[in-house]
Amino acid sequence: MYKVAVVKCGSYDSSEVMESLNRALALIGGIDTFLPASSSGTILLKPNLLAGEPPEKAVTTHPSVMQAIATTLLQKECQVQMGDSPGLGDPFKTAVKSGLQPVYDLGVLPADFETVVEMHSPDGRVSRRLPTAAAVAGADLVVSCAKLKTHALQIYTGGVKNLYGCLVGLNKAKQHFRYPDRDVFADFLLDIYTAVMPGLTIIDGIMAMEGNGPRTGTPRKAGVLIVSGNALAADLAALQVIGFFPNKIPIFRAAKKRNLRPFSIDEIQWLGDDLADVQIQDFVPAVTTRVSFGPQLLQRPLRNLLIAYPDINATRCQSCGACMKICPAKALKMVGGQVRLSRSKCITCYCCHEACTYGAIDLHCGVLGRTAAKLMRTE
Ligand code: SF4
Ligand code: SF4
């Protein structure tokens, strides 16, 4: 059984977060259990820094959570670094814009998320060569400090999906083009997970994100911190909290296929507060949930009804070009000062949706797709 601590935490007040984190760590054996053998070993804190957004938008892992884990590790005299690779932009500036300067001020060093090092994924099914950040390859312990959010492509993002930021910058968008199929991409995420293998996972579910995550969804109080030595186990607990079924989540379908455990809720040992006290019954999924059924010939005509394509809002669009820069399929171009989408080229990876600082890219789904999103909550 894989231990997971799920503890209530009602706010981002720093002493409350520290108390909850301490309680969670104690439940799974204490922080010492997870430290590298050598005290000179490097620990990498990997928050979710999708973009430089203020903490109250619930896009990024909250600074209070990062401060709590950093303080805990620094008290043990560990060498602690912190960083992530946003889709676009400078990693350090993104961290500062996300409110993480106070964490660096504690004595945490900025991690190198610009130098690319090829990391080998021995159990890789989709790819065994991963263009990861030097900081990831050099760490003795990676702590996945994730944010509990919905995700347009993968339905849910938490401890495992957070590791996608271990790849550097535009390499991330390129991989979407190489692996446009959602299930293959989920398998690729597991290649990253098994290569990086975080020794500790902390999911910030104090303010989660529902709806069209991971960037433009709606903050939703879930009031929990989830901590485990196993990222899949932490994610299983998070899915329980928001009432999503693992068998509907591509990462867990892929994990089951390759017998990567745990992939079922029966395999985790739930510690801390009762599920009944933390579960949310009406957590809203993204509109982009897809179903696939029947022969391919039938699926093609239904595609437009099932799949949400990016829809550029001309009023909000500032013509900054960020979406075009990140689009791996070159499906966007500027025509007469307005961004236009070519549906035939679009691989619906939603990188543009994540990259747009102005919230100018909406995701609208046809009626069948909306029904599919509702079905996601039922077995
Ligand atoms: S990223 Fe957003 S604001 Fe910038 S061009 Fe694209 S749609 Fe417009
Ligand atoms: S237009 Fe957006 S969703 Fe479509 S391929 Fe480009 S980045 Fe991905």
Description:
It is a single chain. The chain has 379 residues and is α/β, with parallel strands linked by helices. It folds into 2 domains: 2-278, Rossmann fold (3-Layer(aba) Sandwich), CATH 3.40.50; 296-375, Alpha-Beta Plaits, CATH 3.30.70. It is built from 14 helices and 15 strands. The protein has helices at 14-27, 63-75, 91-97, 101-105, 134-137, 171-178, 182-196, 231-242, 250-257, 275-278, 296-306, 322-326, 351-355, 367-375, and strands at 2-8, 42-47, 79-82, 109-110, 116-120, 129-133, 141-151, 155-157, 200-210, 218-228, 268-272, 309-312, 332-335, 338-341, 361-364. The strands form 4 sheets. Strands 1, 2, 3, 4, 7, 8, 9, 10 and 11 form a 9-stranded mixed beta sheet that branches. Helix 1 (14-27) packs across helix 2 (63-75) and helix 7 packs across helix 9 (250-257). It is globular and about 55 Å long. It starts with a strand and ends with a helix. The structure holds iron/sulfur cluster (SF4) (2 copies). Residues 310, 327, 329, 331-332, 341, 346-352 line the site of one iron/sulfur cluster (SF4).
